[in-house]
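Journal club side-thread
Mid-discussion, someone asked how the predicted structure for our own chain would compare to the paper's figures. Pasting it here so we can look after the session.
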Amino acid sequence: QLQLVESGGGLVQPGGSLRLSCLASGGLHYHAMGWFRQAPGKEREGVSCISSSGGSNDYADSVKGRFTISRDDAKNTVYLQMDSLKPEDTAVYYCAASTEFVCYPDYADFTIWGQGTQVTVSS
């Protein structure tokens, strides 16, 4: 079973940047990969997804233009570059692997999850 471990979270001031990493225990070639987040008292939401080929991606409206997803299959790693961070981006961020090759708008096909990494945006 594929295992995912996130890292890179922390405390950052508004307007700052963080890069999250998701290291997999095995190959990611056959999986679209996604980042999700869950803020206190809120439901988990899909933030971004990248297809297995890396040729297409998707972003939630709330992060478009600020976040960038990428993957390096040679390193079994997926990244989420987060720029212009806002207090409302504060959440636990999770990496997940999909059963599909491509991304779907409902973010419903993710079955393997990491343990999460905390991102706090505050002055």
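Post-session note: The CA atoms of residues 98 and 110 lie 4 Å apart.
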